[in-house]
Amino acid sequence: MAEKMSMKEQAKPLALPSPAIHPTAVDEEEAVGGGASRFRSLGKRRRALCCCCSCCGATTVVLGVVLLVLFLTVFKVKDPTLTMNSLTIDSFNLDLSSPPNNPVSANVTLTADISIKNPNAASFRFGSSATEFYYEGATVGVAYAPAGRVGADRTVRMNVTVDVLADQLASRPDAGSTILSGGDLNLTTHTDIAGRVSVLGIYKRHIKIAMNCSVVLQVSLTSANTTSTTCDGNVN
After folding, report:
1. 184 and 139 belong to one structural domain
2. What's the average model confidence in pLDDT over 114-135?
3. Planar angle of CA 171, 175, 177, nearest 5 degrees
4. Any idea where the Late embryogenesis abundant protein LEA-2 subgroup domain is (predicted)?
């Protein structure tokens, strides 16, 4: 009986070690392989992130350089030009029945053809303006022009009409004698136009244009006409 029990105990197989406590070689290899795979994946993500950041930075730099070049060349604000194209006499009326102290009185209506040239790649907006006429330092007439807009690389022409103030002109003794004898009346004009150029709504420049002109009117008892007009302009 004892011999049978001994033989059964010898025939009983030995218990295998628990994988949870004693991992096999296969499990260790899988664990090592999984860690290496995660490390490689993390490295790829870092390289992709660095590449993306580099591309974004390079794109930003390129765009900045392009905008800088555009603002220094194409979008650089240039000075608009104000020109007196012509000055014509629409009407000339002579009154010889004036009081003795003013032997002659003349009513003159002038039309000034003025143009504004905008050489910029952005529009030029300007407010209402005035053109003043002077004779020997005294104001003899004022012409008004409405506000407006000049498109990019465009020219706008305006016609302004002024009635020369007869009493102001007649109050100058030499004006009456010049008209009676026939001669030249030397007038001067002054025009101010204030406006603004806005580039892409980012850069805005306020501009003031001034123009001074010397006008020679040849007058007589029967007619009057302009013989010369010389202008000089400046921009602030």
Report:
1. yes
2. 93
3. 115
4. 114-214
